[in-house]
Amino acid sequence: MATSNGFLSAIANNNRIALLCASVVLAGGITIGSVSLANGMVAMKRADREVTVRGVAQRNVTANRASWSVNYSEAAYDLSEALSAVDRDSVTIRKYLAKQGFEDAMTKPSSANISVTDEYRDGKYTGRKVYTVRRTISFTTSKVAQVQAVQANKDELAQGGLVVDDVNASYEYTELDKVKPEMIAEATKDARRAAEKFANDSGSSVGGIKSATQGYFSVSSREAPSGDEEYGSSGQTASSPDQRVRVVTTIDYYLD
């Protein structure tokens, strides 16, 4: 009988130990789960508290390279006559350019582009062919001021009896890589200031960066309204040598 009581007592003790162990494991699991859940809630709360800001940096630069081009043409019933007329135009244009310091091989005309069309009058074919000969003179130079003078005085060509199809001048700043690092830093600081102002107004503080995107560098003439950039990172030309370089950086900040 004593043996039976001792056996029952041992079973009861073992059950109490097992129950105690299970309670400890369950409590530990609840604690770990609570910590994980709390961390998850903090992460979710932090993810919901963020602000997106843009930082802008601008700088005035002066072009150090210029390009100039002129397209001109002559038409006649005879091809040789049209060619001769275009040759005379070439001489006139090259003389004009020589006055501004551009001559020799730099102003050599392109090969002639010749087209032939039927002549119509009052909707009826006249039976005659019209030969049109087109040529171009173009060059690129570091003489920016001289190109400005050529463009400003181009009416002299018309005064000399020459009517050209198209005259264009463009200006390029070739040292953009020299100002890029400083401008990126300026745009980033500008974005941070915007985020801090927003955080102060909302009773928060600025945390780490969630993501950042750098826009392309754009250039426009200085007199153009901001945002009317004439080109992006793929080029550096504008219609004026007095240019404005601009870059915009977009950054997402966490708010604490």
TrEMBL record:
The chain crosses the membrane at residues 17-39. The keyword Transmembrane applies. Residues 217-243 are annotated as: Disordered. Keywords: Membrane, Transmembrane, Transmembrane helix. It holds the Pfam family SIMPL. InterPro entries: 26kDa_periplasmic_antigen, SIMPL/DUF541, UCP029033. Residues 233-242 have a biased composition (Polar residues). Coiled coil: none annotated. PANTHER family: SLR1258 PROTEIN. This is SIMPL domain-containing protein. It comes from Tsuneonella flava. The lineage of its organism: Bacteria, Pseudomonadati, Pseudomonadota, Alphaproteobacteria, Sphingomonadales.
